[in-house]
Design goal:
mainly beta, YmcC-like fold, 16-stranded mixed sheet, 16 strands
């Protein structure tokens, strides 16, 4: 309420016009404040504080629409108070689908193996299940005539890399059965013992069991003739048992038996192919090719011999070189087995034979 200041009374003039003017002015001021009218000039007067609420009201619907389109509405919850000392959480990355596991870890059913096997590298089969391996027919494995050598004991000078020792090969045919045994010693200690046992049939030597012992590690290959399979004591792999199949020891005697019965095999262009199995799940067709005639210098004197070689077909295959003595029923007077990629070798050179 405006306080009226008393004026001195002037005679002849009424106070009512003045009072009416003041009342009208007061009424106009109240109406202007209620209507929000800005009386200042925009060029000279700062912006009125009433402008901000107007701007917020006009923008707020747009922000609400953008937020509702960006993410789904969540149920209304009361957010707990945030401590003032807490650090602001880093912005959350957009959710993405989990990455698939590496290809090496994805398990898939193994296909049926129908390929020529890596000769000296065992195939790995699933644990608890046998895997029968089919052989590709890229190499013919014929059945040869054979004439077995008589019983014999051959003693050798042995060399394994830079180490020297002695070796002995015993060949014991007996009616319809046989046993071949090779033992190698270095410094009087046996480091390899191979034993081949089995029978004899129309294809020559017919192994039933082959054992290969390297110090305390003993492995075996079983020629299951009733089932037509070659199995092993360790790997769960099975190979078909082909006619004339041999193990890594009997193949050297079988090669001489074929040369005894078919001398043309020990002439230029001659070859002998046979399926050979080791004791560690390895097997392949070994092709022995005639190389030529050589004189082998042994402790028993010079020996005229015929040389056959089995060439490796893949890395880590075994190169086999064998010299057979025609005067000793083509028994081996020298043999060398080596894996060039691994830098290993084993050589036998005849000292004497009984």
């Amino acid at each position: 309420m405006l306080q009226q200041v008393p004026h001195p009374h002037r005679p002849g003039r009424s106070r009512w016009p003045v009072l009416l003017g003041l009342a009208a002015t007061t009424t106009l001021l109240h109406l202007a404040l209620l209507a929000g009218t800005d009386f200042g000039s925009p060029e000279t007067t700062p912006a009125s504080p009433h402008v901000a609420p107007v701007q917020v009201r006009s923008v707020a619907p747009v922000l609400a629409a953008e937020l509702s389109a960006a993410e789904p509405a969540a149920p209304a919850t009361v957010a707990p108070p945030v401590p003032t000392a807490a650090k602001p959480a880093p912005p959350r990355a957009a959710a993405s689908a989990p990455a698939p596991p590496p290809a090496a870890l994805v398990l898939a059913p193994a296909p049926v193996v129908e390929t020529v096997l890596a000769p000296d590298t065992p195939l790995q089969a699933d644990a608890g299940s046998a895997q029968t391996v089919a052989l590709a027919g890229d190499t013919e494995v014929p059945v040869y005539k054979t004439r077995l050598p008589p019983p014999a004991t051959l003693r050798y000078a042995l060399r394994r890399g830079l180490l020297s020792g002695s070796g002995e090969l015993q060949w014991r045919p007996n009616g319809e059965a046989y046993e071949a045994r090779l033992e190698g010693r270095i410094a009087g200690i046996s480091f390899i013992t191979q034993v081949s046992q089995g029978g004899l049939d129309e294809a020559g030597i017919a192994p039933r069991r082959f054992t290969d012992q390297r110090r305390r590690d003993l492995r075996a290959a079983n020629f299951q003739r009733d089932k037509g399979l070659i199995t092993f004591s360790g790997p769960t792999i099975e190979y078909p048992l082909l006619p004339g199949s041999q193990d890594r020891l009997s193949c050297l005697i079988q090669l001489g038996a074929v040369a005894n019965a078919e001398p043309q095999r020990a002439t230029p262009g001659g070859r002998v192919a046979m399926f050979v199995a080791g004791a560690r799940g390895d097997a392949d067709v070994w092709v022995f090719r005639f190389v030529g005639s050589e004189i082998v210098d042994t402790d028993a004197g010079p020996v005229p011999a015929v040389k056959f070689t089995r060439e490796p077909r893949r890395p880590y295959d075994t190169l086999v070189e064998v010299w057979l003595d025609p005067a000793r029923s083509h028994l081996p007077v020298r043999a060398r087995l080596s894996v060039e990629s691994a830098g290993t070798s084993l050589e036998l050179l005849l000292r004497d034979m009984q």
